[in-house]
């Protein structure tokens, strides 16, 4: 089943020209570029801020079936710790690998294709980054989180406590303890 092929916006920094590779298996092109991050590159709690820099270090190689893209994408991550709700700022590198099939081949609808001698890295980048993001990001592995009683960030004072709690059903008897004399 051939997917619907539409013309790509060649102004997008994630659309790369591949006409110089031709269909000569073995020809390569190396790309070292910094491009702005597209919108919605992440999940609810952590992601890549729109417009922040993405450093692409890629190798485009012509193979018999199409263009093989391999390399890394280095991004800035911004999010919230799942335990203490502090902001997280980090840098991470993600492996990128995708085969873009030449037109005229039978491909599944989820496979990438070369359109008008260009490849669009948007979906490839999303797959590489979003699928590897943690569902519960932490500011540190030993984050203590928030106090369940008052919401205090226990990382600021690990000894934080509210004293011994007395079961409310027995609280009335606690006064008797101090009044007993033998």
TrEMBL record:
<dbReference type="InterPro" id="IPR003772">
    <property type="entry name" value="YceD"/>
</dbReference>
<dbReference type="Pfam" id="PF02620">
    <property type="entry name" value="YceD"/>
</dbReference>
<protein>
    <submittedName>
        <fullName>DUF177 domain-containing protein</fullName>
    </submittedName>
</protein>
């Amino acid at each position: 089943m051939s997917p619907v092929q539409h013309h790509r916006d060649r102004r997008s920094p994630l659309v790369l020209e591949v006409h110089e590779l031709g269909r000569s298996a073995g020809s390569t092109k190396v790309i070292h570029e910094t491009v702005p991050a597209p919108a919605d590159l992440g999940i609810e709690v952590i992601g890549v801020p729109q417009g922040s820099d993405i450093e692409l270090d890629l190798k485009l190689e012509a193979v018999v079936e199409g263009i093989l893209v391999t390399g890394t994408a280095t991004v800035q991550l911004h999010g919230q710790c799942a335990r203490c709700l502090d902001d997280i700022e980090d840098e991470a590198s993600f492996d990128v690998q995708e085969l873009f099939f030449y037109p005229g081949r039978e491909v599944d609808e989820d496979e990438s294709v070369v359109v008008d001698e260009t490849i669009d890295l948007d979906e490839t980048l999303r797959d590489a980054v979003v699928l590897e993001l943690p569902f519960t990001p932490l500011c540190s592995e030993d984050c203590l989180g928030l106090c369940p009683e008052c919401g205090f960030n226990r990382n600021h004072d690990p000894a934080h406590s509210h004293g011994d709690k007395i079961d409310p059903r027995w609280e009335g008897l606690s006064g008797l303890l101090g009044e007993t004399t033998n």
